[in-house]
Amino acid sequence: MTNAIKTISKKGVLFAIGYVFIKWLLILSVGTYLAKQGLWKNEYLFILPVIAVSAGLFRYLKKAPAYKIYFRKALERYYPKYAKELLEDIDAKYDELKVDIRFAKTSSNPMDKRLDLTAYFLALIMVLEKAGESFEQIRAVALFTITEYLRPKNKWQAFLKKLPVKLIKTSFGRYLIKAFAKKVGHRGNPEGFVANIITDTNETHGLGYGVDIIECGICKLFKKHNYQKYVSILCEVDKYTTNLAGLSMMRTDTIANGANKCDFRYQLQTNTSK
User: Fold this and answer.
1) Which of 76, 94, 244, 250 could make an SS bond with 123 (beta carbons 3.0 to 4.6 A apart)?
2) Is 95 a domain residue?
């Protein structure tokens, strides 16, 4: 998210500068001559933003997901001689899995959006297991990948990861939590997530925010392909993301371990600067 904001900001400034430059270049050169011939109107310059937006949209649709960079980085670290071939195998396996999560992009439940990344992780696990790698080796590669992906790359990203916690007890934050609760409390797809948002301070260690995952889309996807033993690896990531937000996580059990729900409860860290 923060990478996208930063990129959009830079591109916005560059586009504005470029647009003004090209506009006056055309007016002072070609436009002046054609205007004398009655063949030019300055309104034609509005075609420039249309072209730019169209080109940007095309690039966005064709652009590979940002997370793939970190998969490549992990493979180059653990398998420097075979990284390219492994990544190609993962891409091929992911293409097979996409049919199972194609609902995620348009699901009414925002939690389902994470299933695209989940499917790529499953593809990684499938490829490494087929190559004969042990559970612990697969776990090491997967955890390195996701922590590198989630790790803040600058102070701005670190700030944004802590921002939701700062907003929790504000009126705006409570509004966002209420809106989020409505969306995640309903099944967007039978293969996706369902969650209950807990706002009672007595049940959330005074924070006013907790989550009960009732149906886990990740568990469903892995179980569908008989890889449910690997779901616990992704569950480990929750502690890392919670820490980045300036919180400590308390969870008694998970669906991956056979429980009826994943109960996420949090406390503010005593020292969030670490």
Assistant:
1) 94
2) yes
